[in-house]
Design goal:
single chain, 163 residues, alpha+beta, 2 domains, four-stranded antiparallel β-sheet, three-stranded mixed β-sheet, 6 helices, 7 strands
Length: 163
């Protein structure tokens, strides 16, 4: 058994299941519920990975307020950006002009941003039966940036995990 587990985004669902904090049916509910809920958003947004510190990325995103967001800080020099498809394309053009590499991620919607807010009610409904249980193995949540007891892995947590 591991000393602790951690996961980001969908990986947090897998981490929770791997230590028994979610039952298989709960993990499947969260994964499929997310997948079904985001279908209308596919193609309207996306994500990029930049090998830049988050503070520098925030500067680059300033002209795109409300359209592009820092979605994840993966390390001191790796930051994921998420947002509207047209704004991402414009950002890529600006980055290309400056010789800054940007790697597109395969997520075809604006995950981990306020642009997920319209899905809140639907996702809370889809996840309403998910409860989670406490386990002896700590689960470090990328949502909270700290350990989360398994019995706090409810609908609100899994919505925040996508948002």
């Amino acid at each position: 058994r591991p000393d602790a587990v951690v996961g980001h985004s969908l990986g947090e669902i897998a981490a929770a299941y791997s230590v028994g904090a979610l039952a298989l049916d709960e993990a499947v509910t969260v994964v499929t519920g997310r997948g079904q809920a985001v279908v209308p958003l596919v193609g309207k947004g996306g994500m990029l990975s930049l090998e830049l510190p988050p503070a520098r990325v925030e500067e680059l995103l300033a002209p795109f307020k409300g359209r592009l967001f820092v979605a994840a800080v993966n390390s001191a020099r790796s930051t994921a950006v998420s947002g509207e498809a047209d704004a991402l394309a414009e950002l890529r053009d600006r980055l290309d002009e400056r010789g800054i590499a940007a790697r597109p991620l395969t997520t075809p919607f604006a995950s981990h941003t306020p642009l997920m807010d319209p899905l809140r009610a639907e996702l809370l409904d889809r996840f309403s039966g998910v409860r989670g249980v406490r386990t002896p193995t700590p689960l470090y949540s990328a949502v909270l940036a700290e350990p989360v007891p398994g019995d706090r892995l409810d609908a609100d947590h899994w919505y925040a995990n996508l948002r």
